[in-house]
Amino acid sequence: MRTVHVKLRERSYEIFIGSGALNAIGPWLAKQGFSKKALVVTVPSVKKLFGAKVEESLCSAGFAPRFAVVPEGEGSKSLAKAIALYGECIRFGMDRWSPVIALGGGVVGDLAGFVSATFMRGLPFIQVPTTLLAQVDSSIGGKTGVDLPHGKNLVGCFYQPKAVFSDVSVLKTLPAKEVRNGLAEIIKHGASLDAKLFSFLEHGVGKILSLDEKALEETVAWNARVKAGVVEKDEYEQKGARMLLNFGHTVGHAVEAASKFRLSHGESVAIGMVGELLLSHELAGLDKNDSTRVITLIERAGLPTMIPSTVPLNAVLAAAKLDKKARAGTIRAVLLKRIGSAFVAPVPLNDFKKAVEELAK
Ligand SMILES: NC(=O)c1ccc[n+]([C@@H]2O[C@H](COP(=O)([O-])OP(=O)(O)OC[C@H]3O[C@@H](n4cnc5c(N)ncnc54)[C@H](O)[C@@H]3O)[C@@H](O)[C@H]2O)c1
Ligand SMILES: [Zn+2]
Predict the structure, then answer these.
(1) Is the C-beta atom of 182 inside 6 A of ligand 1?
(2) Residue 73 and residue 99 in contact, taking contact as beta carbons nearer than 8 Å
(3) pTM across the whole model
(4) CA of 64 to the centre of ligand 2 (A)
């Protein structure tokens, strides 16, 4: 098993990566001196696949686990579901040392993290990510939260987990669409932050798509190191470094909202990266050869590179103007100087509009 250390002073933690990591949860928890009542937050499909294994690991280490199952999908990231989980914690008789374990994708991680952060002002929180996206991105860095009817992730806080267990063998059952969603964030990490990771992906994308365990382990560990490195520099997203994780996301979020969320987040980010490559070419002198390499990798990952004709362009522009990052005729986006080197720049809305139009041709 590989370990990636996230160094955040008294909030530091380990990410355990490898096939079999699920079995390590119970023994690790037992060493921490937590209370024995452990709440496992999950969704029905993931409970069916891995619930028994996690339960066994916990029980054999002396824990009394209880499962709290929320429905699949983004709809569970709500204040209503958080309140329901506070009720579970109370009925179960949890105290401030009772661990909460998120077993699932980013939805379960964000929701369970928010509940752990807020119930009794904070319970120990453990991430057990089971989607590729959650293993390479959402389980690391401590962003937790829920959605409001007005928009995604509007309520939440930073709350680091005590440990992350990324078992790559669980990815075998992941639907191909979810693998591609994770790959979009992985390509994002390479293109904007790590040229060597990008070359590794150019060689290995086929193996990742076919869920080769060794390739997955190396990919998850590498991406965990990249994300941890950024989080260590800027835990609370105040110094600019963490903003660099948003390559493809300014255009991507606008496309995602304009599609009324019919395009997945990964598909939207893939299209968004192509848009921001065009902007990087215009405004930051990015070499055409570099943008061709990124676009080729996005295509090989089975992700889209153009805005589908069903998504109205004026809705994309309207969504961009509403973005938190928009101000006074410009919108902030992450641009590339070259592969692996990114910076944040104000983009004039006119340039933004041209790039979006280009994405629909
Ligand atoms: N906190 C962060 O830093 C951060 C970063 C990125 C995304 N997010 C959030 O993550 C969420 C998206 O997460 P996601 O893409 O993991 O989606 P998700 O949590 O909805 O998971 C997708 C679905 O995959 C299935 N699934 C999960 N694991 C499986 C497995 N091993 N085998 C078979 N099926 C499995 C389940 O049906 C699940 O409902 C969004 O809400 C987003 O806002 C958070
Ligand atoms: Zn994303």
Answers:
(1) no
(2) no
(3) 0.97
(4) 35
